[in-house]
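Hi everyone,

Forwarding the result from last night's run.
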Amino acid sequence: MAIRLRGLAVVGALLVLVAATNILAAPPTGGTGPGGLYSTDGTSNLVLWLRADKGVSLGGGTEVMTWADQSGYGHNASGSVGSTPDLVTGASGINGMPALNFVNANDEYLSGYLNPPSPGTDLDDVTLTTVVQLELGSRSTIFAMGSSSPPHYPDGYDYFGFGLKDEGSGAYWHHDSRNNGSWAGYMDVRGGNFTPDTDPHMTAWTDYASTGARTLHVDGSLASNDGGQDRYNNPGQVSTYSVGSATDLWEYGGLISEVILHKSALNGAERVILDNVLSSKYGINMLAGDHYSEGTGDYRLDVFGLGQSGSDSVTSAGAGGMGFEITSTLADGDWAFAGHNTTTNGVTTFALGERWERVWFIDFSGEDVDGTLAFDLNSAAFTDPEAGEYRLLYSGSDPYSWDVAPYVATVDGNTVSFSVSTTDLPTEDGYFTLGVVPESGSLLLLLSAGAMLLLGRRKGGTR
């Protein structure tokens, strides 16, 4: 099976390279939220992003004093000596990633302010996403926000809280809220695969302002959908929040690696993408919607995705120096995910010239896609880019065996892009990076294209 690119038949795996024209105003290496969704410039619906692998400031020893917000709004969390969690790393964290360890008995918490534009107004939907590893045996609040000073939100104020209950009859997820001091409703989610345990989990709780509906996804699967209860109401667009303790007797115990708050209801495609990103990063087994296989198993850095779920779609995203924009029409179930395994980027040599050390694994499924793939040259500088031509490199395996795609690169400032047109999907995923091939090596391009044809074989069916 081959795809046709500007009239040349090349490897089928290249058709997934769809990307980036409208994200190039902000380079695809940065300025993006988790999963390449939303900006981190303090203007988007991503209003809080706390991650234990970035922005953590310690006091004495491992005690966390400040947890810096990565959303761009500066909604930092802080605490006082003796009442904050510790930072744990390595095997003590989640999947080898750092985490904050909250001790229930010590009433440990961090808190901050959500300044305008904050979530919680009558007109705003709210999506709260967390990565946690729980301690059972008590009531625990993972995250709360309200209209009074945290962490203990008293009666008489507005309040939104999410956590769990485990009081002898079995553990279950719990969400409740108050409106001007009166209980506005609650939701309990329990049973089956959704029963809280001591394994790592990712949760996505959404409140829909227009209908009062509330939904909870656990590890990618819809756990509950309640359409009848009132929701949190915060007048004045000024909120406080707490990670950990929220009210007396609700102190949190366990690990928290990530807290993400959107001032919107993530659409179906956005939620699937974010679930896959967090699942890959933290080694969480997804109950539904797993679309990223991580290549040889460790291509889990700067993971981002594009695709369509139902009628919801995401057509542009980027991270780590590479971005996609899809220009063709998507169908339900079309996905493209990318990630790399190199914390820093540099330049190395290969048989035909130089290439980036950073390599992206592309995992894709669905039907035809057309678009543009873009690389940000700020990610790593070539020794002498004038010595040759920018080329898109492909390998069907790791360890790599590089072939050169017969594209003509478009260079715009620090951005190198390649237009891609596809006719069918391959059955194999691939590894991609940017290279510079001297003109003396251009005669090898047709041989390279021929070799790539051998990779475009079908193992049966579309993916």
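The longest strand covers residues 126-134.

Cheers,
N.
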